[in-house]
Write a structure and sequence with these properties.
Elements (H helix, E strand, L loop, with lengths): L14 H5 L4 H29 L5 H22 L2 H6 L1 H6 L1
Helix pairs in contact: 2-3
Length: 95
Amino acid sequence: MFKKLSAEDFAALRGPFESGRQSPGNLGGILFLSVFLQSLVYGLEYFVAADASIYPNKERILMIHFWVTLILVILSVIYSVPAVYKRSQKCNTLL
């Protein structure tokens, strides 16, 4: 199926790169901003949604979400540094 695809099929994906919206500098700034957004989402889940939840394992869900959020925050801070994201741009895009 993928053998039938040509370069023109992916032309729409080049737009953000050519316009500069997804340049390495901009992605580093977005990753730094995402640290605060990830923390906000976890805080909202913990303080707003957890009290009204009737799930039997809500403590375990919150603990797993905490560790996943912590790992994402650490990786986002590491990859928002210019020396790191220029060296490993493929991992930065995955994040």
